[in-house]
């Protein structure tokens, strides 16, 4: 097995997977795919591109082919003919997790003729052929810089009956130019840059994703307009370090301008972004957030450590005082902003005093939530060669930090009680909605909200007034739970009998209705995004026509040469930056 070059890939014919030629003996159904995504939002968006590439090549999502989906096993294959695992390498156990998943899939593959397994993402970029050496039943391995080759590699592996491995050292095709099958009809990721120019000593990502490359503003806005035309009303601007956007083409104020411009795109109601870096976060971004109604009052600001000594060792070019000043400035302009963060515990050399400094910053910062991690050394990073903190010390510190974060998160959620919120109804956010007669979605500040339906509405009674995913509902928060908000205002303003009250109180916190003394409130605004979601539901149940043409997504074309920020948008809206 050899690592093929790009020229070979370009010459490989791509199968129209709807021919059914490799779906099993006598089968006329299309080949199906299932993408499993591990890791960050960048991986989620990359998976959307993989899905788009496969659908353009004639594959169908396994969920849309009941005959195939019925074969699903506990191995996470979904019943598909092609299973792609999009990997992350940030955590130490990433490889263990991957090979555990691959081991489960091996048994499925033995029983499913023609099944293929592909491994993509950061761990694929890092390990390359080492994946096939440890798991020889894997058919395809490709990295972060060449998503576009996936259909060709699958066909090559079938044709040669051998694994196809292809990695590029640098980006060849900007991912945003590739076809996309977006997971959500109402919200979209829009990449503004790939790669990272920072040199954090704990992070493997820059060596796997490469140096930062910015898209031109006109291209970004053209994609925002395209997803708005599809029905999306929320976009999240995505990059490893979004507020360094523009450095590549000489405009350090480009990100603030981009926020304002994205908010002005017709049809877009909510703009979010992730993730910024505290060292590059500037006042013009805060001003753009505060002055652009469509930019949501939510901010993910990675702290990593509250100790200045540890921040220096991490090569994080800011200190705790600067970090807290940013938070103060954001809250001065947007008092109700919800700020979240990332924190690493047990970085090499961290003392108890350093850890206490982190606890002190967390107490002062009052984060709405925090993603907390035990430090894990990543081979190839400078920090991996430093003296490590004993495991038992790291675990104890993690426990103490987790307890503090949980307490503050709960207190901040309780503080939301009584607030009236506009919630964008989402799909799949509430795992127990069917049991509790609720729907779920995100508030403007990105907090998760579980919303009780009026007693006369069923969860799927869309014609009767139940909001669809993508619709907006105005409600009042009646309870702040440890990890979410509950808005049961639709059920308020009615007096319960003693028996009803007692029965309600006897239920667990998640199952009971949380009444308050306010009036009933449940106002639904049906949106274009809800319409788009409903159309997708109808289309996913439709039987495809038995033609031989490759499947096309019907997405608006995003022009790579779209006008830059000084001109007018493709929808004719002025861009004032």
UniProtKB/TrEMBL annotation:
Record: residues binding [4Fe-4S] cluster 1: 40, 88, 122
Binding-site residues for [4Fe-4S] cluster 2, renumbered to this chain: 196, 200, 203
Chief site of localization: cytoplasm
Protein name: tRNA-2-methylthio-N(6)-dimethylallyladenosine synthase
Functional description taken from the UniProt entry: Catalyzes the methylthiolation of N6-(dimethylallyl)adenosine (i(6)A), leading to the formation of 2-methylthio-N6-(dimethylallyl)adenosine (ms(2)i(6)A) at position 37 in tRNAs that read codons beginning with uridine.
Keyword annotations of the record: 4Fe-4S, Cytoplasm, Iron, Iron-sulfur, Metal-binding, S-adenosyl-L-methionine, Transferase, tRNA processing
PROSITE patterns, alphabetized: MTTASE_N (PS51449), MTTASE_RADICAL (PS01278), RADICAL_SAM (PS51918), TRAM (PS50926)
EC number(s) per entry: 2.8.4.3
Species of origin: Actinomyces respiraculi
Oligomer status and interactors: Monomer.
Domain Radical SAM core: 182-411
Family, as annotated: Belongs to the methylthiotransferase family. MiaB subfamily.
Domain MTTase N-terminal: 31-159
Subcellular location: Cytoplasm
């Amino acid at each position: 097995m050899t690592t093929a070059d790009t020229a070979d890939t370009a010459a490989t014919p791509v199968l129209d997977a709807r021919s059914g030629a490799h779906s099993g003996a006598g089968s006329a159904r299309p080949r199906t795919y299932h993408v499993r995504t591990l890791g960050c939002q960048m991986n989620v968006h990359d998976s959307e591109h993989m899905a788009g590439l496969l659908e353009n090549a004639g594959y169908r999502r396994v969920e849309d082919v009941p005959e195939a989906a019925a074969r699903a096993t506990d191995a996470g294959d979904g019943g598909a003919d092609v299973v792609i695992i999009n990997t992350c390498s940030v955590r130490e156990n990433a490889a263990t997790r991957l090979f555990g998943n691959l081991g489960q899939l091996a048994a499925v593959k033995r029983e499913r003729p023609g099944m293929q397994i592909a491994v993509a993402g950061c761990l694929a970029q890092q390990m390359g052929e080492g994946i096939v050496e440890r798991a020889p039943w894997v058919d395809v391995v490709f990295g972060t810089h060449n998503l576009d080759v996936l259909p060709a590699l699958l066909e090559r592996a079938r044709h040669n009956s051998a694994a196809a491995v292809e990695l590029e050292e640098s980006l060849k095709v900007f991912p945003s130019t590739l076809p996309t099958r977006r997971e959500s009809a109402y919200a979209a990721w829009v990449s503004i840059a790939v790669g990272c120019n920072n040199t954090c000593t704990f992070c493997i990502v820059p060596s796997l994703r490469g140096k930062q490359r910015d898209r031109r503003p006109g291209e970004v806005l053209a994609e925002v307009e395209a997803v708005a035309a599809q029905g999306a009303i929320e976009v999240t601007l995505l990059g490893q370090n979004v507020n360094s956007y523009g450095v590549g083409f000489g405009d350090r104020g480009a990100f603030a301008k981009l926020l304002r411009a994205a908010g002005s795109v017709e049809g877009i109601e909510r703009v979010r972004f992730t993730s910024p870096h505290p060292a590059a976060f500037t006042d013009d971004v805060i001003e753009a957030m505060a002055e652009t109604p469509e930019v949501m009052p939510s901010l993910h600001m990675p702290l990593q450590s509250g100790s200045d000594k540890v921040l220096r060792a991490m090569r994080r070019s800011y200190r705790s005082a600067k970090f807290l000043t940013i938070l103060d400035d954001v809250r001065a302009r947007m008092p109700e902003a919800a700020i979240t963060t990332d924190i690493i515990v047990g970085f090499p050399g961290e003392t108890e005093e350093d850890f206490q400094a982190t606890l002190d910053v967390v107490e002062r910062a009052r984060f709405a939530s925090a993603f907390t991690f035990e430090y894990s050394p990543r081979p190839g990073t400078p920090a991996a060669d430093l003296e490590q903190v004993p495991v038992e010390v790291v675990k104890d510190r993690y426990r103490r930090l987790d307890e503090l974060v949980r307490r503050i998160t709960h207190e901040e959620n309780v503080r939301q009680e009584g607030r009236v919120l506009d919630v964008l109804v989402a799909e799949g956010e509430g795992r127990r909605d069917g049991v509790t007669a609720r729907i779920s979605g995100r508030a403007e500040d990105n907090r998760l909200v579980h919303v009780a339906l009026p007693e006369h509405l069923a969860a799927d009674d869309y014609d009767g007034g139940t909001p669809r995913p993508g619709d907006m509902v105005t409600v009042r928060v009646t309870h702040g739970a440890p990890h979410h908000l509950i808005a049961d205002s639709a059920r308020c303003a009615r007096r319960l009998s003693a028996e009803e009250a007692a029965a309600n109180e006897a239920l667990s916190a998640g199952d009971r209705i949380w009444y308050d003394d306010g009036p009933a409130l449940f106002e639904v605004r049906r949106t274009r995004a809800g319409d788009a979601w409903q159309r997708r539901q109808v289309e996913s149940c439709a039987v495809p026509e038995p033609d031989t043409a490759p499947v096309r997504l019907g997405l608006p074309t995003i022009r790579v040469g779209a006008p830059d920020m000084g001109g007018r948008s493709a929808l004719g809206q002025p861009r004032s930056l």
